[in-house]
Amino acid sequence: MTSPLSFTLHATAGAARAGVLKTPHGDVHTPAFMPVGTCGTVKGMTPVDLAAMDTEMVLANAYHLWVRPGHQTVQRLGGLHQFMGWSGPILTDSGGFQVFSLREMNKVTEQGVRFRAPLDGQYRTLSPELCVEIQEALGVDLAMALDECIEWPADRDRVARSTERTTRWLRRCLVHRRHPEATALLGIVQGGFEEDLRVAHAQQLVDMDLDGYAIGGLSVGEPKEQLLSMVAFTAPLLPVDKLRYLMGVGYPLDIVEAVMRGVDLLDCVLPTRSGRFGQVFTSKGRLNIKHARFREDPRPMDDACTCYACRSFSRAYLRHLFLSHEILAPRLLTLHNLTFYQQLMLRLRAAITDDPGAVTAVRDDAKGWMEALQD
Fold first, then answer.
1. For residue 1, is it within any domain?
2. Which domain holds residue 165?
3. Cα atoms in the Cβ-side hemisphere of radius 13 Å centred on 295
4. Is 267 a catalytic residue?
5. Is residue 291 domain-resident?
6. Other CB atoms closer than 10 Å to residue 358's CB: what's the count?
7. Which of 94, 238, 267, 371 would disulfide-bridge 144, Cβ 3.0–4.6 Å?
8. What digits encode the pLDDT tens for the residues 150-191?
9. Predicted local confidence at residue 117, as pLDDT
10. Contact at 8 Å (CB) between 260 and 28?
11. Which one from 93, 141, 254, 302 is the annotated catalytic residue?
């Protein structure tokens, strides 16, 4: 079976990797960050906005699009690319994390997950087979297999049972594929924080020769040190010539740390969600644009940034927009935050490729951004 994906590794700096992922809808230069477009849109951003900031791939969510407007509706309208007006690659989350977040409202069985959807109150069952059907109907480039994402902490027996179920669900996903030439399928390595379970599960998935691999079961409440330790442990277990994806990790420093441990692809709602609440990431630290100190501040949010928001508007004006509840405010801050993230990825790729020693400098800068609260 020919994979619709190919990954070429071009350079390394320690465990950090730089390469190119080829997909049916274009190339993605890695390490890469995907803005999250849960319902088929990155909130407040047009596809033109995303392309202008050098976004190459976005994430949408199969669960949400299944609930509304329905995957068959999207398919009849030409697929998700045409539906949302985005010509680049799209990855869809299987819905496993949404199932985890709705764990008080669901029941997990061998068949799948039965839950009551908050949107319409209807009971629905998401099975591995339906998970694949939804994502292939959407016509996305990369689909995620359905997995069972469990809470932290969890005892070893629960982790083992969950990991075994994830493997069985993955096998069912593979059997149910109808368009493997168009939509790649990525498996998710589980095993909690039990190293031997991680090793065994990674080997099982590698033996299946999948299109790519995700590191799962992390960013579910564990301390940051444990998360990064498990990323460092798991990444080398995966093939050198296949994509490695870490889901839902998104502070700038966390992104750099993950890349330095061998991760190629990341996503997170943080830059968009932060922008909607007035939080800004800058090269001199974080700021809250709503703070009174910016009432008469004529400076841009970040004088090192060339995005439209920073070129055109002052902190004072942006604060005014937020306090006036103008919808332009969250749009402009989201535009800036996503540009900031894409510039971080560009800098990481350049460091890995051209000056491996500079990767540490990128990490030091990111650490400073997180520690500094800009005045």
1. no
2. 6-267
3. 2
4. yes
5. yes
6. 15
7. 94
8. 889 999 999 999 999 999 999 999 999 999 999 999 999 999
9. 79
10. no
11. 93
Q: Do 183 and 311 fall into the same domain?
A: no
In the numeric block, the tokens 């010509």 are attached to: 87
Question: Residue 99 — very low, low, confident or very high, per pLDDT cuts 50/70/90?
Answer: low
Q: Is 196 a catalytic residue?
A: no
Candidates 147, 254, 264, 267; catalytic one: 267
Per-residue pLDDT tens over the stretch 131-152: 999 999 999 999 999 999 888 9
3-state helix, strand, coil in the chain (%, to 5): 45, 20, 35
Q: Which of left, alpha, beta for 176 (phi over 0: left; psi -120 to 50: alpha)?
A: alpha
Last residue of a domain, one of 237, 267, 297: 267
pTM over 0.85: yes
DSSP 328-366: HHHHHHHHHHHHHHHHHHHHHHHHHHH-TTHHHHHHHHH
* Mean pLDDT along residues 232-260: 97
| 138 and 177, same domain (yes or no) | yes
Question: At residue 181, what is the residue type?
Answer: E
Q: How far apart are CA 78 and CA 97, in angstroms?
A: 27
The type of residue at 171 is R
Buried b (16+ CB within 10 A) or exposed e, 295-333: eebeebbbeebebebbeebbbebbbbbbeeeeeebbbbb
- Do 242 and 295 lie in a common domain? no
